[in-house]
Amino acid sequence: MNIFKRSGARTLRSQSSTQPVPQRQRQEPIVKSPREIQLMREAGRIVARVHAAMREAIRPGVSTLDLDRLAVDTMAKYNATSCFLGYRGFPGNICASINHELVHGIPKADRILKDGDIISIDIGVRYRGFIGDSAWTYGVGAISDEAKQLMQVTEESLYQGIANAVAGKKVIDISRAVQRYVEDHDMYIVREYTGHGVGRQMHEPPQVLNYASDDSDGQYVLKSGYVLAIEPMVQAGTWQTRTLKDNWTVVSKDGSLTAHFEHTVAITNNGPEILTLP
Ligand code: MG
Ligand code: MG
Q: Does 162 fall in a domain?
C-alpha cells in the first residue's frame, strides 16, 4: 500500500493555484540501527516470498480473494501478519488491482483473472515489529505489447530511483530519476500517491514523490540508516486518477492501463540495499 493522497498539496490544482499550499509539519526521517535494518531485511524477505507465491498462483480463473488467502497463509508460515488488513479500515490482506485499477484494489471472490489482464499486487507485512512493503505488476497469460512495455518502463523507473537512494543525495534525486525515465518513455507518472519512509510504521517521513517538486520532503539529504519505500505508479494515458465508490480502489481517470512497482530500500554506507528480495 502506498501512502494515501500526498500531503501538503491535495491536488495539482491546489498546487498551481494562487492560494498558499497548506504546509504539513515536517518530520525528520528516522535513522534505523544495524539491528533494526536486519529485522527489516527479514520482514522484506518474507514479502518477497509472498510475492513468489503470488507469481506462481496467478493465472486465468484465479480470484483476487484466492490470492489474498494464499498471501495471508504464506505470511503466517513465516510468523508475519498483513499490515494492510484494518489499516484505515482496509478489508483485505493485500491490495489487488487489475488493469486500469492502479492501487488499493480490494480482494474479492468474484474478481476473476482473465487471460491478458495485468494485476498489481501490493504486499505489506509486519514481522517482529517492522514492516516490509513491496508491490509488483504481473501479467496473466498472454499480455499485449502495450502492457509489457508499461510494466517494463515502470519496473525500470523503480531501479532508476533506487540507484539514487545514496547517502549524500537528496530525496528529490530519487523523484527526478523516476519521473525522467517514465516521461522519456511517453508514459505518465501518477502524482497523487507517493512513496514513503518505512520502519516500525508503514508510513514514516519522508514522502518520496515520483516527480520533482519543491513543496515536498525532497530536500532531505539521504543518510545511511534511512529506509524508504520507493514506488513508481505509472499510467499509459494520463497522470490523473479517481477513486471508485468503494472508497478504496484508485483507477486511472481515463481507463488506461496502470502499473505499480515498489521495493523497500535501505540507504547504507555501501549504497542502496533492496530489503524486499528473497
Ligand atoms: Mg506497498
Ligand atoms: Mg508503500
A: yes
What pTM was estimated for this model as a whole? Answer: 0.93
Tell me how far apart the alpha carbons of residues 129 and 101 are, in angstroms, rounded to a whole number. 30
Determine whether 61 is exposed, middle or buried from the number of CB atoms within 10 Å of its CB (0-12, 13-18, 19+).
exposed
What domain range includes position 114?
3-7+27-274
Q: Into how many domains does the chain fold?
A: 1
Distance CA 196, CA 6 (A): 10
**97-128: pLDDT as tens digits:** 999 999 999 999 999 999 999 999 999 999 99
Task: Tell whether 19 is covered by a domain.
Answer: no
Q: Which helix (H) or strand (E) holds 136?
A: strand 130-139
Cα–ligand 1 centroid distance for 134 (angstroms): 5
Cα(41) to centroid(ligand 2), Å: 16
CA 216 – CA 172 distance, rounded (Å): 8
Length, in residues, of the chain: 278
Say what percent of the chain tops pLDDT 90: 89
Which ligand is located closest to the Cα atom of residue 134? 1
Paired sense of beta strands 233-235 and 258-260, if any? antiparallel
**What's the CA-to-centroid distance between 116 and ligand 1, angstroms?**
24
> Which listed ligand is nearest to 198 at the C-alpha?
2
Q: What sign does the dihedral 7-12-15-17 (CA atoms) show?
A: negative
